[in-house]
Amino acid sequence: MHRHDRPVTILERDPSRDARPPGGTLDLHEGMGQLALRKAGLLADFLPLSRPEGQAMRILDVDGTVLRDWPADPDEQANPEIDRGQLRDLLLGSMDVRWGQGVTEVVPGTGDGVLVRFADGRQETFDLVVGADGAWSRVRPALSPVTPHYTGITYVETSLDDVDHRHPELARLIGDGSVAVYGPDRALVAQRNSGGHVKVYAQFRAPLDWQADLDPADADAVRSSLLALFDGWTAPVLELLSHGTAFVRRPLHVLPVSHTWAHVPGVTLLGDAAHLMPPLGVGANLAMLEGAELAEAVAAAGDLDEAVRAFEEQMWARAGRWAKMTAAWLERLVSPDPAAALAVFDDVHPGPSVTTAPGGADRAG
After folding, report:
1. At 139, which CATH number?
2. pLDDT tens digit string along 277-289?
3. Closest Cα to residue 355, out of 70, 67, 131?
4. Do 250 and 262 have their domain in common?
5. Are 103 and 140 in contact (CB under 8 A)?
């Protein structure tokens, strides 16, 4: 929209750009996130920030046996990684963002446009309101009564800093990209970010109120609970949790696979607000591509409402396919049979891998 000289107001509830950690790393697909960057004129700026080596992937058994090892091709640009903070700053650039603008309600059909009410009591009207406000969208209720539901799977996230110098044995375990270990109904995944930073995710099936009596700020108690959950796994793998200094619980919620709504003039959704799905490398890519497509449709529109309606139809069809696929992947990745998780990677991961039978000589650590 900026490149087409169309005025846009960007409302962000965070009080500033650096109000909270921006999150981990993500891979941008050539035909999705990278395509959106190309449309925005930012692909050339993205490439120096991206990490093609981050596409490397290693899978271990719970005893440390290396089951699969996919090295990365440094010249491969199909799905390079980038830190979320770097991507956010690239996208925002010098754009004018209105920080600290918490939206409480969106009311279409007011006659003068779409009314937006703010947490501080103010209100404004706009020609088109695009809810790109995530899983617990404040815009979604203007279009749909549906809310996200719990998948039965919880992630607990922790971090390791300066891993190459402080924990060289874990740096070797993780490699250039990610390492994943799958057991019955649980998994441990560690993923490199830039600057020697690593995000670690414990994934397991549990009630929504798992360890509700634990104080999230009590890192020792959370760590002990997680180590008990993964009891019996090889010591080098458990070190990924042992060195974590802070833990964040993230129960996974999703919207129904076929989530749509009756078109409402002046309001639409994209990204997680429209089609929240498991965090398996698709959500950010879809949100970026949808943003680019919606902007192009609006910029070229003779009839704004018809352009948005056509965008929604296209978005629903594509997002529905991905939601169905990622839901099936999640069920297999955190399942009673760890072989099901391995099969997911064999289905989707291109290129040769090193394979060592369980009990073989190649072990982590």
Report:
1. 3.50.50.60
2. 999 999 999 999 9
3. 67
4. no
5. no
